[in-house]
Design goal:
Length: 201
């Protein structure tokens, strides 16, 4: 019988991995044998995950609480799944999805079931990404229709701006003096004053 290890992941150092650790412990995993990454699941460039895969031997079993703890990109998950079960000849157990337990059926049917489930998850994940993008685009379009403006907010010039701009235009103040009077950077004062003068010319 091979070694049983656990893998846990949270997206940042501030997040808490306790729920995953409790689930792994209840599954009989010694917490000394749990590899933990505090990093995004967007790819598999994670130090503890790579260390676990390197140490993995044929007959070993990896336990994870849920499939998204393994990763977020299902195409990459399928690739890693094949490395673990195919190249490494090890097993995977996803605790909250019992159908993804490769120990159950060590035959063609078991492999087929896992492949179908993973492919379905990949499809659903990709569709959700597309739907999110579409919803964002529709939301932006609807907001623009309502008159919502995107980008940096337009700053209201200080009360003395118009007087300073007029004095600068009439050469009573240098641009440096006018900008200083308004508490603005020279470039900002120049751009706003020039736009104002263009509008009133």
């Amino acid at each position: 019988m091979g070694k049983e290890v656990g893998y846990a992941r949270v997206s940042s150092k501030e997040q808490n991995e306790d729920r995953q650790m409790i689930a792994l412990k209840e599954a009989g995993i010694n917490l000394k044998n749990v590899y933990l990454d505090k990093q995004s699941g967007k790819d598999f460039e994670r130090p503890e995950y790579k260390r676990m895969i390197k140490a993995l031997k044929a007959g070993d079993t990896i336990f994870v609480k849920s499939i998204d703890r393994l990763g977020r990109n299902y195409e990459d998950i399928i690739k890693q799944w094949k490395i673990i079960t195919g190249e490494k000849k090890a097993f995977i157990v996803v605790l909250d999805m019992p159908i993804l337990d490769t120990r159950q059926e060590k035959n063609l049917i078991g492999t087929l079931i896992s492949d179908i489930v993973l492919s379905l998850l990949s499809f659903v994940s990709n569709q959700e990404r597309l739907n999110i993008g579409q919803r964002q685009a529709e939301g932006i379009a609807a907001a623009k229709e309502r008159g919502v403006r995107f980008g940096a907010p337009t700053l209201t010039p200080p009360p003395m701006f118009f007087e300073a701009a007029g004095k600068w235009k009439n050469h009573c103040l240098t641009i440096r003096e006018a900008a200083l009077l308004c508490g603005m950077a020279k470039s900002t004062f120049y751009d706003k004053a020039k736009n104002l003068l263009d509008e009133t010319s």
